[in-house]
Structures are given as structure tokens and as C-alpha cells.
Amino acid sequence: QVQLRESGPRLVKPSETLSLICTVSGDSISNYYLTWIRQPPGKGLEYIGYTRYNGRTNYNPSLMGRVTLSVDTSNNQLSLRLTSVTDVDTAVYFCATIGGTGYVDDWGQGTLVIVSS
Amino acid sequence: DIVMTQSPDSLAVSLGERATINCKSSQSVLLNSDSELAWYQQKPGQPPRLLIYLASTRASGVPDRFSGSGSGTDFTLTISGLQAEDVAIYYCMQYYTSPRTFGQGTRLEIK
Question: Of A64, A70, A104, B14, which one has the greatest count of Cβ atoms within 10 A?
């Protein structure tokens, strides 16, 4: 079964760029659509976007212009860049695979990112 | 965006009894004959776990006490014979269109 692990800085300053990596193991990343989802502390789930190795992407309009997803097939990694962060971007960020016609299937454990000066 | 509304927000059920969680979408999520609706279980400190997709298909390894039903805009997750390990927050999610959207969550506790 595919496994996913998120990594990146725990603390990001306001107005700076949040950058996270999701490392996929157990299978080729090229076999999947992949997604990022975030969850502010104590709150619900928010879809960020999805991507595939061929460059096809879809972003949540609420984050449009600030978010970029990309795939590095040579390292089996998915990346997330979110620019101009504010405190509302403080959340646990999950990467996950997409199954079937679009449900979120296998999830990473998530990584907490705090936006604070 | 499609708005997903769950009810109730929280629920307390006795061990061995049935728990029912509802989810309503602001527009139909029916694609051909399939409803693009999934259910997730999230325990504290853990990522969500896929329980149900296509409104009623159990994911691999999910106990058969979990069942999903509904079509179009109204959906139900039923847990028959509640066990202590089922204490969690449950979310529905539509994947009919982007952006994918989630319900606000239903917290399930033991009475």
C-alpha cells in the first residue's frame, strides 16, 4: 500500500512562503492524482488542490494565485507552495492520493504549520 | 461551491446501539448513476480515514457495521452496533466537482 509523509518547516513568518514536501513510498507517484488538504487546529477540512505528474492541476479558488502544486517524479515527491501567508494559514497540512473518480483515499499523517512572527 | 451540511453536530450513543449521521449537499452530486460522496472518520491526532465512497461502497478493511446510503443530495452514514473505538469525528465530502468540499463534521461520543 502506498505511504505518504509530509515534511517542511513548522514555523513560517507572516507574508512569507510556506513550502512543504510529500514523499510517496510503496509505488510510483506517476500512478496517482495527489491532493493537499488542510485543517486549522480544532476545525474542519479544507481542500487545497490536486495535481498529477503530467502537470494537470486544480486549485481551490479561495487560494488561487497563492498556491502552486508540483510533482517531482525522480524523487517521488509532491510539493506545495503557498505564498503571502497569514495566521489563517495555520493548519495541519495533509497530502493524500485520489482514488476512483475523485475521493481522497490514502492520507499522510499530516504536518502542523504555524504562521507567526 | 457545493455546501455540505451535516446533522447533528454532535451525537452520543450507547455502546451496541445505532448511530446515524446525515449529510446534505446544496446541489446534486449525482454523476450518471453514482453519487460522488465519501465519508471519513477522524480520531484525535490522526488523519482522516476513508470509510465509504460512491455514497455506499465500503473502503477496504472497513468493518461492515459501517454503511452508507442516499443519493442526489441527501446521505446517511449508519454505524450499527457502536463500539468504543468508533468515537471520532465523521465528515462527508463531495467529489462531484471542484473544489471538493467537506461537511463541518459530526462528533460521535459514547453515552
Answer: A104
Cα of B39 to nearest chain A Cα, Å? 9
Q: How far is CA B22 from CA A95, B35, B103, in A?
A: 27, 15, 10
The neighbour count for residue B26, using CB atoms within 10 Å, is 13
Residues B4-58: tens digit of each pLDDT: 999 999 999 999 999 999 999 999 999 999 999 999 999 999 999 999 999 999 9
Residue with cell 512572527: A117
Cβ pair B96, B36 in contact under 8 A: yes
CA distances from B29 to A84, B2, B32, B101 (A): 34, 9, 10, 11
Number of A–B residue contacts, CB under 8 Å: 64
Residues on chain A touching B54 (C-beta within 8 angstroms):
100, 103
Integer Cα distance of A94 and A113 in angstroms: 11
Tell if the CB–CB gap between B49 and A107 is shorter than 8 Å.
yes
Q: pLDDT of B57-67, one tens digit each?
A: 999 999 999 99
Q: Which residues of A touch B100 (CB under 8 A)?
A: 35, 47, 102, 104
**Spatial contact of B71 and B25, defined as CB atoms under 8 Å apart:** no
